[in-house]
Write a structure and sequence with these properties.
Blueprint: E1 4-11, E2 17-24, H1 37-50, E3 55-61, H2 73-77, E4 80-82, E5 91-95, E6 100-111, E7 114-122
Parallel strand pairs: 2-3
Antiparallel strand pairs: 1-2, 3-5, 4-5, 6-7
């Protein structure tokens, strides 16, 4: 189930490679257990992460609180969840634990229930 809005693979100036993807998970009504659209999408996300050793950053409308993860995407993929400290917290990030998060900023409201979120990460030199 492909619901990536955008993805990017790039080499940073410090020589590290990083994969970044923007996702839109299925709505809560699709969270109906094994085989549901949310379950299939979660499996696709985990497969996407596990296909490489590159650092990975996923920003998404998770359609649920980013660290309240009934499909255990973070645990299964090994990524760290991070969402804003206020609001609905349905927009946020999962990222490789080797990356250091320095700050997260909530930007302006973009639509009902969605506040744009910016995350700044540090990628160490190999």
């Amino acid at each position: 189930m492909r619901r990536r809005l955008a993805d990017f693979v790039g080499k940073l100036t410090n020589g590290r490679w990083v994969r970044i993807a923007s996702l839109h998970m299925p709505p809560p009504r699709c969270q109906t257990g094994v085989g549901s659209p949310n379950d299939r999408m979660s499996g696709s996300v985990v497969d996407f992460v596990q296909r490489t050793d590159m650092f990975t950053v996923l920003g998404a409308d998770w359609n649920k609180t980013v660290d309240d993860d009934p499909n255990e995407i973070g645990r299964r993929s090994g990524l760290e969840p991070n969402g804003p400290d206020s609001g609905d917290r349905i927009d946020g990030f999962l990222y490789s634990p080797q990356l250091s998060s320095c700050c997260m900023t909530q930007l302006g409201q973009v639509s009902d229930g969605h506040q744009a979120v910016q995350l700044k990460l540090t990628v160490s030199t190999p």
